[in-house]
Design the sequence.
């Protein structure tokens, strides 16, 4: 497989007010292959967006290097084949959606008819056909996010970098986004997906890279992480009485009541038959039985040590390059 | 009908038909044509990304409320300034207002006590033809005729009249050959450059002369004030837009979606500067056009219009200095927050109008050498914007002494603009987003 995105020991350090350095990206080396969806995940402040900015030449590495499509992003011809959706972006708010896309089309040098066709294509892809004449300032955040997606696709790029593409999208929008990414993947596009949404990653990504405190902790195939395990998970209507739960606990691996359901983990599928009479006795009904599997979230929690920008607990300080790890 | 034809002929021959009045609008039309073919027909002509950036900047900015409000206020004030001196009611009302304010009344009196009001150092005037005398003598309350005592023969091509003198040429004749010989010195107006005499038959008395002098001074001040107002409002629009454009786009993430596209940082920032400059220049041209229109309307109907067309032509070149202002402020916003950048930019822009005065201070006796060097440094660093004022009319004003080029000022400002633009690009290239 051809490598479409490559970084070698990519490092970005910022000066801290106390004179030290803060490593936003720490010695990251990774390869993204043609036609794959690569998810780049990590807590807030892990350095995901900085990595993308380094890849796109929006900021410069302290050390290391990066390539897209085998060359430097400074090359105008390479840029013609790259699409990018930034996080927390805005567009020219006094212009209509169509005018904004027209502008981006012009930047790619698309001629009149070609540009009009491209605009129609991306408006349809982003679900904005009925909003083409609406000024951007009157669009909701979710719709503005769709405008962002549309501009990223205007040049029909071979490599697509999406920074938090689901941000601001409602569930329907998120479903549309997954569909769109799937379509692009089927068309052979390489997609670098920077996201927090692990469930989306599980569904659409081929591989995942986990970044923590600027350090790439793991790169793995999604299928290797989220494989099935022995045992099943039974979901039933909630059982409140401890007297009803006690006999279930005797045969189950674990029992937990949360989110309005009681989850019963069983060692093997055949034990479901033993549970059913106990549920009936507890006046509960079986809702679902699923093969037990490891989710990306579990893997993520096990890999990431910092808490990012979470409000729960103090944030781990990024490592100082002068500390234990050698600075490139 | 004949009267109107005479007026139109007069307007074209003398009031409009000078080179800058034609060259400047023609230049803007040419830019528009190039714009159209490069931006609107990219399939046929080479596409320039900077023009696309400039275009979208214009489209996004002209809808902004602050720009619209400033432009409307500017147009209203400029319009009022343009109409008042051309109407008797306007003049009378203004006189009444001024008489009610002793300070202004006194200042105006000081300005009108000398014949210098009519005849300044360096003015070159020609005498109307003899046949004009008869026509003008019938114009009540106005000067009938004037000349320079002991004047030399001046070929018509050297004519560079100032309005305060030449707009006495009521009746629609262009500069006539100097052929009159003074026959009387019944009334004489003395000035540094010579003396103006009123001929036999003139009904002007010294008192009337004083009244007219006051009116002329007032109207000149208002006309010049109109351009100052236009200049001020346009500069304000330029300040606001230049201060906001880069920080706004960088903070809102607009640049993040543009710069990964096939466009260089220099193209982006030049496009931004061009876009803001085009808006600012467009606003100024709109205000100048408003004054021009008022001027033409009053001329067409034979009313006196005191505006100096050479002055008008000179201010048509003001956009050159707006470009300097825009790129300086944009560059400063890359190194500091918007407000300090705006303040420092305003100081540089204002200081640029007095740059040539600075060098005079270096000639002060016993000036410490550090101050001397500092002043010389400031002289060279500040853009010489005073060149792009009515001083444009002075062809001898050039940065390099004895470089007697008519367009020398353009070279000077051009060099400053190139240097500042290069600095802007350099700063933006170094900027991490």
Sequence:
């Amino acid at each position: 497989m051809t490598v479409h995105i490559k970084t070698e020991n990519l490092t970005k350090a910022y000066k801290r007010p106390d004179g030290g350095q803060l490593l936003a990206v720490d010695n990251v080396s990774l390869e993204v292959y043609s036609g794959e969806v690569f998810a780049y995940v990590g807590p807030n402040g892990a350095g995901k967006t900085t990595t993308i900015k380094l890849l796109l030449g929006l900021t410069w590495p302290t050390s290391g290097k990066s390539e897209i499509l085998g060359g430097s992003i400074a090359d105008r011809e390479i840029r013609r084949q790259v699409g990018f959706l930034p996080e927390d972006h805005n567009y020219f708010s006094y212009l209509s959606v169509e005018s904004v896309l027209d502008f981006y089309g012009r930047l790619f040098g698309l001629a009149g008819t070609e540009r009009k066709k491209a605009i129609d294509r991306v408006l349809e892809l982003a679900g904005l056909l009925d909003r083409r004449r609406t000024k951007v300032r009157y669009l909701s955040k979710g719709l503005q996010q769709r405008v962002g997606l549309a501009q990223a696709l205007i040049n029909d790029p071979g490599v697509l970098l999406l920074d938090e593409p689901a941000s601001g999208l409602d569930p329907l929008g998120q479903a549309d986004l997954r569909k769109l990414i799937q379509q692009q993947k089927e068309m052979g596009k390489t997609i670098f997906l920077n996201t927090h949404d692990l469930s989306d990653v599980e569904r659409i990504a081929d591989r995942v890279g986990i970044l923590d405190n600027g350090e790439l902790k793991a790169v793995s195939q999604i299928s290797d992480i989220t494989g099935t395990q022995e045992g099943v998970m039974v979901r039933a209507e909630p059982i409140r009485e401890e007297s009803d739960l006690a006999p279930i606990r005797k045969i189950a691996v674990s029992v937990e009541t949360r989110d309005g359901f009681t989850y019963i983990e069983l060692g093997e599928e055949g034990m479901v038959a033993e549970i059913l009479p106990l549920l009936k006795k507890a006046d509960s009904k079986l809702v679902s039985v699923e093969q037990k599997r490891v989710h990306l979230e579990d893997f993520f929690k096990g890999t990431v040590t910092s808490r990012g920008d979470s409000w729960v607990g103090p944030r781990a300080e990024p490592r100082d390059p002068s500390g234990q790890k050698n600075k490139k | 009908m004949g009267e109107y034809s005479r007026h139109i002929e007069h307007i074209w021959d003398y009031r409009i038909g000078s080179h800058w009045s034609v060259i400047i609008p023609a230049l803007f039309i040419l830019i528009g044509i190039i714009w159209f073919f490069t931006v609107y027909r990219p399939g046929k002509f080479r596409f320039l990304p900077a023009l696309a950036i400039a275009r979208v900047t214009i489209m996004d900015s002209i809808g902004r409320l602050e720009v619209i409000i400033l432009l409307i206020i500017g147009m209203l004030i400029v319009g009022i300034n343009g109409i008042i001196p051309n109407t008797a009611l306007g003049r009378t009302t203004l006189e009444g207002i001024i008489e009610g304010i002793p300070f202004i009344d006194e200042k105006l009196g000081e300005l009108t006590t000398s014949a210098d009001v009519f005849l300044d150092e360096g003015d070159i005037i020609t005498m109307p033809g003899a046949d004009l005398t008869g026509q003008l003598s019938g114009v009540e309350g106005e000067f009938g005729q004037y000349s320079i005592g002991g004047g030399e023969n001046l070929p018509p091509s050297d004519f560079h009249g100032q309005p305060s003198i030449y707009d006495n040429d009521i009746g629609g004749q262009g500069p006539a050959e100097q052929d009159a010989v003074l026959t009387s010195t019944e009334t004489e107006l003395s000035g540094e450059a010579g003396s103006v005499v009123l001929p036999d038959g003139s009904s002007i008395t010294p008192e009337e002369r004083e009244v007219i002098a006051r009116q002329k001074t007032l109207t000149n001040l208002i006309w010049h004030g109109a351009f100052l107002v236009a200049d001020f409002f346009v500069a304000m629009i330029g300040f606001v837009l230049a201060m906001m454009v880069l920080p706004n786009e960088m903070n809102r993430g607009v640049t993040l979606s543009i710069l990964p596209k096939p466009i260089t940082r220099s193209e982006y920032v030049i496009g931004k500067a061009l876009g803001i400059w085009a808006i600012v220049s467009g606003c100024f041209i709109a205000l100048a056009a408003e004054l021009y229109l008022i001027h033409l309307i009053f001329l067409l109907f034979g009313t006196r219009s005191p505006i100096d067309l050479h002055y008008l032509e000179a201010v048509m070149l003001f956009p050159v200095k707006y470009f300097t202002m825009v790129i300086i402020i944009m560059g400063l916003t890359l190194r500091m927050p918007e407000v300090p950048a705006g303040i420092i930019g305003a100081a540089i822009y204002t200081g640029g109008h007095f740059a040539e005065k600075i060098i005079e201070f270096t000639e002060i006796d016993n000036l410490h050498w550090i101050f001397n060097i500092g002043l010389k440094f400031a002289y060279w660093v500040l853009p010489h914007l005073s060149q792009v004022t009515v001083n444009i009319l002075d062809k001898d004003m050039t940065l390099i002494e004895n470089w007697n080029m008519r367009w020398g000022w353009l070279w000077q400002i051009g060099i400053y603009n190139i240097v500042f633009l290069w600095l802007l690009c350099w700063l933006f290239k170094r900027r991490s987003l």
